[in-house]
Amino acid sequence: MTQPSHLTARPAPSLNGTARAPGDKSMSHRALILGAMATGTTEIEGLLEGDDVLATARAVKAFGATVERLGVGQWRVTGQGGFRTPADVIDCGNAGTGVRLLMGAAAGYPITATFDGDASLRKRPMGRVTDHLERMSARFDWSGARGLLPADLTGGSLSAIDHVQTVASAQVKSAILLAGLNAVGITTVTEPEPSRDHTERMLRAFGAVVEVETLDEGWRVSLTGGQALTGTGVAVPGDPSSAAFPLAAALIVPGSSVTVEGVMLNPLRTGLFQTWIDMGADLTITNRRSSGGEEVGDITARHSRLNGIVVPEDRAASMIDEYPILAATAAFADGATVMRGIGEMRVKESDRIALMAAGLAACGVAVEEEAEGFTVTGSNAVRGGATVTTHGDHRIAMSHLILGLAAEQAVTVDEPGMIATSFPGFVALMRGLGADIAEA
Ligand SMILES: O=C(O)C1=C[C@@H](OP(=O)(O)O)[C@@H](O)[C@H](O)C1
Ligand SMILES: C=C(OP(=O)(O)O)C(=O)O
């Protein structure tokens, strides 16, 4: 199927209805990778069938696991208790999580592998992971610039390290812990604020012992090397980072009420929802339950008058992927929404601070960019009427399309095919709620 070159969102009268969030991307990558490292069978339900995760599924198959798709979101991974040298380059596509976690996992085995990705992934810093894997004795050779893909790994014979992070990163933490599983000694990662803990939780579900110590600031996670994983069942709940888009639309389009069911409520992922509540959003969570080792619930958002706030900087790790959509909703708030301490946004699929600032400004929104953040001053009438360059970043595309639903004039985005990396059903889901999003 050919992808449209552009998508346009037109002002919507109101959005109403109930939808289900797609499976969580972070957990989907981890379920496939741990399933492949384990011995035995891992049955996964609710796997996100987005391009990022499908690249990881192909990667773990290349590393020797048997990977079967049993039905929609239902996958079976049969692991060999280790990785073997793959025949081809491991192409992780657009996925930072995929490549960094796979590098960590693969580093623990006596194999070689070449990792690569698309043009965006080739620009993202890998040294934040590979420098530490090298300290553990893995070797990386770079055919181009050091620290940028493609990279050739020679793994095996690792020693544990004690790593103290200055910026919380679940990808760095996870890569080191996955390598640490096959290292000699106790591997420890200390974070200034806790980042998402799906790796730790899932490792325990696969039978590993992972210790967590709460510190005055942040926490310390450790595991002893030489632990074997055993395949298990994984139920992947809905992705809060994707649920954010239809919920945002409901908050800013007058007359709207939207419920998203089955959203994961891990407290290390819900910073955006708390921030919206702090801004005065009418957001209610019902039907809280436990599923697959995570709390999930149904979230209803109704159109709300939002007030700008200063977002606490120590919340950044719990909503790092959500600042683009927060900025889009802040464009409709009374006053300024100040977002700081988020320099990490500049090294995602794009420089998200620069692209949000440019896209919002093109839509007539007052925005001030800083080195490590930005401030959006809202208004109850956002002009829209722009074509926004996304640099192939799914969250930049979706955030501007949502803004277009509530603006005075339509908003168009380029490279909309990239939305499928994290949210392949985005357009259909939004149309089901009454949104007018179509090929430009
Ligand atoms: O571990 C993960 O699944 C993720 C961690 C975050 O990245 P960092 O670890 O770089 O903060 C986040 O931005 C990414 O989308 C998913
Ligand atoms: C940053 C993201 O993903 P990744 O780092 O896996 O590419 C994201 O999904 O917003």
Automatic annotation (TrEMBL):
Keywords: Amino-acid biosynthesis, Aromatic amino acid biosynthesis, Cytoplasm, Transferase
Keyword Ion transport part of the UniProt annotation: no
Enolpyruvate transferase domain: residues covered: 14-428
Location relative to the cell: Cytoplasm
SUPFAM superfamilies assigned: EPT/RTPC-like
Pathway, per record: Metabolic intermediate biosynthesis; chorismate biosynthesis; chorismate from D-erythrose 4-phosphate and phosphoenolpyruvate: step 6/7
Pfam families: EPSP_synthase
InterPro entries associated with the record: Enolpyruvate_Tfrase_dom (IPR001986), Enolpyruvate_Tfrase_sf (IPR036968), EPSP_synthase (IPR006264), EPSP_synthase_CS (IPR023193), RNA3'P_cycl/enolpyr_Trfase_a/b (IPR013792)
Enzyme Commission identifier(s): 2.5.1.19
Positions of region (Disordered): 1-24
Binding site for 3-phosphoshikimate: 25-26, 30, 169, 171, 321, 348
Major subcellular site: cytoplasm
The keyword Mitochondrion is annotated on this UniProt entry: no
Listed GO MF terms: 3-phosphoshikimate 1-carboxyvinyltransferase activity
Binding annotation for phosphoenolpyruvate: 25, 96, 124, 171, 352, 395
Reaction equation(s) it catalyzes: 3-phosphoshikimate + phosphoenolpyruvate = 5-O-(1-carboxyvinyl)-3-phosphoshikimate + phosphate
Active site residues of this protein: 321 (proton acceptor)
Assembly information from the UniProt record: Monomer.
Family: Belongs to the EPSP synthase family.
HAMAP family per record: EPSP_synth
Job of this protein: Catalyzes the transfer of the enolpyruvyl moiety of phosphoenolpyruvate (PEP) to the 5-hydroxyl of shikimate-3-phosphate (S3P) to produce enolpyruvyl shikimate-3-phosphate and inorganic phosphate.
Protein name: 3-phosphoshikimate 1-carboxyvinyltransferase
Organism of derivation: Brevundimonas vitisensis
Species lineage: Bacteria, Pseudomonadati, Pseudomonadota, Alphaproteobacteria, Caulobacterales
Gene: aroA
